[in-house]
Amino acid sequence: MSNEEPQSAEQNETTVLYASAQAASGAPHIETPTPYDAILLASFGGPEGQDDVIPFLRNVTHGRGIPDERLEEVSTHYRRFGGISPINRQNRELLAALREELAHRGHDLPVYWGNRNWEPMLESAVTEAYADGHRTVLALATSAYSSYSSDRQYREDFARVLGPAGDGGTGLGENDDPMTIDKVRLFFDHPGFVEPFFEGIRDAVTAWLDAGRPAREIRLLFSTHSVPTADAERSGPRDVDFGEGGAYSAQHRAVAEHLVARLRDAIPAASEIDWSLVFQSRSGPPSQPWLEPDVNDVIADLPNAGITAVAVVPLGFVSDHMEVLWDLDNEAKESAEEAGLAFVRTRTPGTHPAYVSGLVDLIEERIHGTPAAERPHVTDLGPWYDVSRAGSDENAHLGFRPAAAGVLP
Q1: Could you give the CA distance from residue 399 to residue 22 in angstroms, rounded to a whole number?
Q2: Interior CA angle at 400 toward 406 and 144, to 5°?
């Protein structure tokens, strides 16, 4: 796939909501410098105490009609950790690291932090940035891949927050001195995001091989959050055929293929190690198809293939938040123990120096207007778009709601 698509007359006439003057063109890649005056770190959010858990889960499931009784069942994951999700602490650490790296590179840019589902909320961060005099904002969301929940929903949040107060927004994108919010490209195949995963795989495999375990008995499972199949099929631009699972699955497969090829180059004995893309953390009703296979089902069947050791790579996650700690470090590990397998869960990017540096690289791409041909990427799918293409990442149930940082709808 090539992202160097020509600009048609229709595309030039389309709308990008709440965009900077440069991004308002709707071009796939913005190759002219943009004078951003603030950065917005946008994330999912999580509870920070037992009393926060149910209100947080109500926010996450708003509009889906899920009763508190069902939320109480889900809450046990958080309550086991004192009602505290690690994601806010991890975001504070990432926030500090980003500020330090930006200052190191000579950028006098404030970084604000706002969450989708818990304090500090996006509304507060945007309002604070506006009060501080900032009008041209570049958002960085803590999600790397194409899908409704990992990309478009953030862009919907930006549009809602900047939109009219009567619609639940602040109105700050509508007044005589409006704020604009652009968004950095999805970074699933940026070298900085990929490097920590490679180091984790390399270290796990090396340890097993050095201990005398045959390579043919080792399996790599690249795990990511499952999403409804209908949403996965709508991920990415609607006019590109990414195959089964849409852009969401294609991006994960491409990164996994890169990592395995790099591992085999670095460790020739690893050529006998096979791998699979697996999914975790599904939350929909049994009647609704979600992406499969489930990581636990795959682990249970590995002994039948002669496998004695499994490394689970949390490829879809930027840090060790609840889905990693519960679904992998707890449930997947238990599945491996029941199957008699040696088990390793490799690291997430977190605040790895390469990851932090890579995120600032993405910010600088937009500040400097770096040509697409000069942007680093490790798969043929990249570099991904600065301005999401029309129809990207539709929610099959909700349809198209207003979204910033992308060509409508």
Answers
A1: 27
A2: 50
Distance, CA of 403 to CA of 409 (rounded, Å): 8
How confident is the model at residue 74, as a pLDDT?
83
- Encode 231-282 in three state secondary structure: HHHCCCCCCCCCCCCHHHHHHHHHHHHHHHHHHHHHCHHHHHCEEEEEEECC
The percent of residues above 70 in pLDDT, for the chain, comes to: 97
Place of tokens 């990432």: 94
Angle between helices 191-210 and 353-368 (to 10 degrees): 160
Confidence of residue 8 (pLDDT cuts 50, 70, 90): very low
Taking 70 as the threshold, does the pLDDT of residue 311 lie above it?
yes
Residue 12 pLDDT more than 50? Answer: no
What span, in angstroms and rounded, lies between the C-alpha atoms of 29 and 42? Answer: 21
Q: Which domains does the chain carry? A: 9-187+352-374 (3.40.50.1400), 191-345 (3.40.50.1400)
Pair of tokens at residue 239: 């006019």
Rounded CA-CA distance 254/237 in Å is 17
Are 187 and 197 in contact, with CB atoms under 8 Å apart?
A: no
How much is the CA Rg of the chain, to the nearest whole Å? Answer: 21
Give the contacts of 237 (CB within 8 A, at least 6 positions apart).
Answer: 247, 385, 388, 389, 390, 391, 392
Q: Are strands 180-183 and 342-345 parallel, antiparallel or unpaired?
A: unpaired
Q: Where are the beta strands (DSSP E) in 341-409?
A: 342-345
Q: Residue 293 is encoded by which pair of tokens?
A: 């296979």
Could you tell me the two tokens for 147? Answer: 């899908």
Residue type, 372: A
376-394 pLDDT, tens digit per residue, is 999 999 999 999 999 999 9
